[in-house]
Amino acid sequence: MENFITGYPGHKNTIRASMLEVMGKEKYEFFFDRWLYWFFTEADARFLKSLGLKCVRIPFNYRHFEDDMNPRVLKESGFDHLGRVIDACSKEGIYSILDMHALPGCHNGAWHSDNVTTHAAFWDHKDFQDRAVWLWEELARHYKDDAWAAGYNPINEPADSLHYRLPAFYSRLDKAVRAIDPRHILWLDGNTYSVEWKEFENYEFPNSVFSLHDYSTMGFPSGVPYEATPEQNATLEAQYMRKSKFQRDRGLPIWNGEWGPRYANPRYEPDAEAINQACYNLLSQQLRNYDKWGVPWTIWLYKDIGL
């Protein structure tokens, strides 16, 4: 529940705490159950199929499956909505990648890991890492025979300031998950918000895909608007080439797990039409690059409040 998706200020954790205080437990639980249900239904899956899409990346918070005050006790209810979305997509011939977007202790300092402190404590406390491994083992047990689950994206946009801890954790997680489910793909995000691969050279990750996130500042309000100049097009391709060098040098599979612009809402921005046309042009140029290099992608984001 990132703020630009829902329109509520703050983090998912604080939003939920505030609404629990105001609504009481019964109404709170009813509201969020219905909110999750209506956010993605079979109609959404049919719409994605109409666009020709073959795969969807489903982000979720560890708190759907475990409570901080009751660690390592699985909440089976967490599988209800996740399984419902996977099933809806499978009926339309669409695969699902399971993306843990928020991990215990927070794996980066940003709002999208539900971090209210900016400190990525996940890397400093083994118990947070132990809980993440435990939860992925539980997820692997549940989905190991599901052919429509395209695999597991263990950490969204990790940010390990010391670099070596991320591949070491992936190596540990790989062994734990493979002991339960040797068949599903691991979709591994690069470090520093999925843009670099320092310290990965000494590890082997079979049956894995290495994910970069290829956002361009030209698609955001603070960036220089995209005007399709030769220099801008060269910059777009160069940024992809930089992020994918590790994979390309080693002949490893690549996945662009996130990318996309931020659009303007005409209710608030008088130049919205021009801004959005530039965003569409930027998106088209990036797609041409991905077609050129044969890169599969999942865009961020399918649904929000209008941005």
From TrEMBL:
Belongs to the glycosyl hydrolase 5 (cellulase A) family. This is Glycoside hydrolase family 5 domain-containing protein. Keywords: Cell wall biogenesis/degradation, Glycosidase, Hydrolase. SUPFAM superfamilies: (Trans)glycosidases. The keyword Hydrolase applies. InterPro entries: GH, Glyco_hydro_5, Glycosyl_hydrolase_5. It comes from Bionectria ochroleuca. Residues 41-303 form the Glycoside hydrolase family domain. The keyword Cell wall biogenesis/degradation applies.
